[in-house]
Amino acid sequence: MKKILSTLLIATMTFSLLTGCSSKENTNQNTENKPAEKDTIVMYTNAEFAPFEYFEGEKIVGVDADIAAEIAKDLGKELKIEHINFDSLVPSLVEGKADFVAAGMTITPERQEEVDFSIAYVESIQNIISKNDAPIKTMDDLKGKKIGVQLGTTGDLAISDSINLDDGDLKGSGSEVVQYKNALEAAQDLLAGRLDAVVIDKLPAEEIVKNNSSLSSVIFGDISESYGIAVQKGNKELLDSINKTLQRLMDEGKVEEFITNHSE
Length: 264
Ligand code: GLN
Description:
The chain is of the alpha/beta class. It is about 40% helix and about 25% strand.
């Protein structure tokens, strides 16, 4: 009996030593305020951009969600994904609400002033979607037309600049840009005849066209865009880890595989 008691005592002491030790470690980490040391890692996205992110019921899935799961796995953390409007993603990251943003987001010099980007993991280009019975294929075709875009995206910038800048191709042509919260709403207005065209990234455009037989999409312009994952400026530790995961996934052909899986 005595022996059992003392064994129990040692076991309890060992346990409290262990827990005491780990809680001390946690306290230290918290005072150092390292976001990467938390148990959960938070990703912000705009889940209206299939195949990169979209809702499957309540769940956010897609290429970026698959990549994020690998990032979290490599960090040994739980992943939490939150959906917000695309144009709020960078400001929210700057405010520290998320650890990273993965949203088919193009690396641009303007965004690089606010956040740091990972290595590029996908190359893209803008596409024009139009109705088969009123096809629009070129910048010239867009003259005088009503064009839908997703607010705050590179497609929005390309069209808005063409209309508003003095040397813009659409300047003074009577073209009008309509900014939507997401491209799906824009596509609906295109189908309803309230727009003549929608300008968005290639794969999401192809995804929309696939689901609407009266629409087609063509490549618009020749500016290639690279997608990157964004972190808060200076969060080198997380960025290094994200880059490592991205490089591994690209070397293993996984990014391509995720794209194929979510484009079916
Ligand atoms: N690649 C585009 C951009 O970064 C669109 C991204 C999106 O709509 N999710 O602006």
